[in-house]
Specification:
The complex is a heterodimer. Chain A is α+β, with helices and mostly antiparallel strands. Chain A is about 20% helix and about 40% strand. In chain B, helix 3 links the parallel strand 5 and strand 6. Classes of the chains: A alpha+beta, B alpha/beta.
Chain lengths: ~70, ~675
């Protein structure tokens, strides 16, 4: 499954990071690397983007981009 | 000696910079890009300069901020780096640190917000961390000014001794390690020639960094060898090149943090942020809360603070000009010269000063909202609708400020990351009806649409937004084809903004505006004064109708005839409106010798509507053009003037001609 489908409040581990070059680089730089634990905290009022917790900090990410991140529970 | 200050966004970098440099700062741009470059002398060390680099997360080549930082560190050759790291968010912050260490320069790590870590019963073993990283680590609190002198003396000591990091790599034995080292040897000579540390070049090549590949000027054969080695590494490690290196760095960081950092549960600041966000990013309350915040800021800026300050300042300027005028009359100065000084120069200076209260108070509130962490929440909440017009939630604040005044709005757009977003936002700002257009709308709607005044006014505001969105769409399909920066944004914990940072920003923005806009506005005022005061044979004119401005207006009237307002008095007022939009009314009043009755003779309701639309859309005033020039360059400023005016003409033409068919 992808991070986009992870229900709010749930945690999972990143298994793969996709996306086009710039996006992918940015995700990796921000610490979304394979093996990282992420928790979905909240969705914005209009459902997109979402707020995720990883490596002790909070990151906001669009659903489109979250769908490029494969996770496993 | 020159030191570079590098660190993540939200790491307290600006606060540290302000405390270390005090009041002798210099603001400019990095060459060729609109990324702000600030530098200042370090307090107590008058021969040492600190350069504040943009807040970045990595040294990859995907944003102008990252490229600028990289170029400055490699080519600018500072004597040392001060790397500020948020101790409460140490894992991600150290990711940049590892890349900075690879640059092989004297570097000191400033471990900021250590007071917060301790208050949450956590601890960081700085000695051990320093051993692991191979660089000095100084615990500080930028907000409380703790550890700053120790930081400066450590940085100076490292730079004087040319003390390089004692650790060279962060990879443990394995395919990645082998590949980096192999490539590092392979390119050693190339790296030496262009003065780049070979280890840094090697990791960038493994990552597939195109600019580095070009800079090294490798032969085809060498490129093949590198690609081959990387391919083998990817196969062996079971992952691709970029992920492999990010993983290598984060694995090292996790190891180091496990050994050095003790954390006890969630921090107070995090829990407080969650509580605040339960309102500010709430499903139904977030948007009303945002609108309320913006309304309060606008009310305070344009009414309470800015309004009163403007009034006070205006009175002061008028009194001063009056006094100067009187003394010049007494002195018996030539009347033309007196008119030049008083109506040309001084009134130009007055016009420039008139913007200062608004800029100062608006940036006071904006920097509080930004530094507290709220602007990131606004971007989070409003990203979805903003994305529809090709921007991100980050652009919303500058656009909203545009309803107040385009000048601070354009200046606020500078904080946006990514060239594309910055340019597109600045392009959109003039479509937001600024407050100077309001008196024009009010006068005309009262005169021509007394029954539908509110409706016409709202239509103008909404129409401006819609046409702006249309323009943004066209621009995106034609000029701004480059992909936007990904919207992957940190939501930092809420914090109290630093007083010094807020005051500093206000001062900077006001000074910047004065420096940049003064010449543009002054030149324009003097030109208009000249055209207004003389006829074509350079005789002074008694009333407006004989002046050069009027004859320019008469010539220009032809252009506006198809729009329904071909009278020279109207075209003259449009020209003076370039100075300031509210001047449209005063000029019309002077030339028609009265208000409403005079207007009725110049306009029909339909041509009044066409005129309002034209006023809404045509070139932003000279002050706004001045700041656009500052942010985007002369060419872009000229394009903006021509595009807006052309667009305004077309829109007014369509409305007038379509309207004619129905009447």
């Amino acid at each position: 499954m992808t991070l986009k489908d992870l229900p709010i409040g749930d945690s999972a581990r990143v298994t793969q990071v996709g996306g086009e070059a710039g996006l992918r680089r940015r995700l990796l730089d921000m610490g979304i690397t394979p093996g990282t634990a992420v928790t979905v905290k909240k969705a914005a009022p209009m459902g997109d983007p979402i707020e995720i917790l990883l490596r002790g900090y909070v990151l906001s990410i669009r659903l489109d981009d979250a769908s490029k991140i494969t996770v496993a529970i | 000696m020159t030191f570079a200050l590098a660190g993540n966004q939200n790491s307290g970098k600006t606060t540290l910079f302000n405390h270390l440099t005090g009041s002798n700062q210099h603001v400019g741009n990095f060459p060729g890009v609109t990324v702000e470059r600030k530098s200042g002398g370090i307090i107590g060390h008058k021969d040492d300069v600190l350069v504040d680099l943009p807040g970045i997360y990595s040294l990859s080549p995907y944003s102008s901020e990252e490229i600028v930082t990289r170029d400055f560190l490699i080519k600018g050759k500072p004597d040392g780096i001060i790397n500020i790291v948020d101790a409460t968010n140490i894992e991600r912050n150290l990711y940049l640190t590892l890349q900075l260490i690879e640059l092989r320069m004297p570097i000191v790590l400033a471990l900021n917000m250590m007071d917060e870590v301790r208050a949450n019963h956590g601890s960081i073993d700085t000695e051990r961390l320093s051993e692991r990283l191979g660089i000095p680590v100084v615990p500080i609190s930028a907000a409380k000014k703790e550890g700053l002198s120790e930081l400066v003396s450590q940085a100076k000591a490292a730079a004087e001794r040319r003390a390089l990091p004692t650790r060279i790599d962060f990879c443990s034995a394995g395919p990645v390690h082998r590949t980096i080292h192999a490539i590092s040897h392979l390119i050693e000579d190339h790296a030496l020639r262009i003065n780049v540390p070979e280890r840094f070049a090697a990791t960038k090549l493994v990552e597939g960094d195109a600019p580095m590949m070009d800079a090294l000027m490798l032969s085809e054969n060498e490129k093949d060898m590198i690609e081959h080695a990387v391919k083998e590494m990817e196969d062996e490690a079971g992952t691709d090149r970029e992920a492999a290196l990010a993983d290598m760095r984060y694995a090292f960081i996790e190891e180091a943090c496990k050994a050095c950092v003790t954390r006890v549960g969630e921090s107070k600041e995090y829990r407080r942020s969650v509580r605040i966000d339960s309102l500010l990013t709430h499903k139904y309350l977030a948007i009303p809360a945002f609108l309320a915040v913006m309304l309060i800021v606008f009310w305070l800026t344009f009414d309470v603070v800015g309004g009163n300050l403007s009034g006070l300042l205006g009175a002061g300027v008028d009194a001063f000009i009056g006094a100067v005028d009187a003394s010049l009359i007494n002195f018996g100065l030539n009347p033309v010269m007196r008119s030049f000084l008083v109506e040309g120069v001084l009134s130009g200076v007055g016009a420039v000063l008139g913007f200062i209260p608004i800029i100062v108070s608006l940036f006071f509130f904006l920097s509080i909202l930004e530094d507290s962490g709220y602007m990131a929440r606004v971007a989070f909440v409003m990203d979805k609708p903003m994305r529809k017009i090709g921007l991100s939630g980050r652009s919303l604040a500058p656009l909203l400020i545009g309803f107040g005044c385009s000048v601070p709005a354009v200046m606020a757009a500078r904080t946006l990351s990514g060239r594309r977003d910055r340019r597109l936002t600045v392009l959109l700002i003039p479509f937001m009806s600024c407050s100077a257009k309001l008196p024009v709308y009010a006068l005309f709607t009262a005169a021509f649409f007394p029954r539908y005044q509110a409706l016409v006014m709202i239509s103008l505001y909404v129409g401006g937004i819609l046409l702006g969105v249309l323009s943004a769409y066209i621009a995106r399909k034609t000029v701004f084809k480059d992909a936007p920066l990904p919207f992957v944004m940190e939501l930092p914990n809420y914090r109290f903004p630093s007083v010094k940072t807020v005051l500093r920003l206000m001062w900077d923005k006001a000074a910047d505006f004065l420096r940049r806009a003064l010449t543009v506005i002054l030149t324009a005022t003097v030109i208009i004064w000249f055209l207004q005061s003389f006829d074509a044979r350079l005789n002074t004119v008694a009333d407006g109708s004989g002046s050069m401005l009027a004859s320019v207006g008469r010539r220009a009237a032809v252009i506006f005839r198809p729009l329904g307002f071909g009278d020279w008095r109207v075209s003259t007022s449009i020209i003076t409106g370039f100075m300031a939009k509210e001047a449209v009314i005063s000029t019309l009043a002077v030339l028609t010798g009265g208000a409403a009755a005079g207007l009725q003779s110049l306009f029909s309701p339909l041509s009044a509507l066409s005129f309002l639309l034209f006023t809404l859309l045509y070139t932003p005033c000279v002050a706004a053009v001045g700041v656009i020039k500052r942010e985007l360059g002369t060419l872009s400023a000229m394009i903006t003037v021509l595009y807006q005016t052309g667009f305004a003409w077309a829109a007014a033409f369509i409305v007038y001609r379509v309207g004619m068919m129905f009447i």
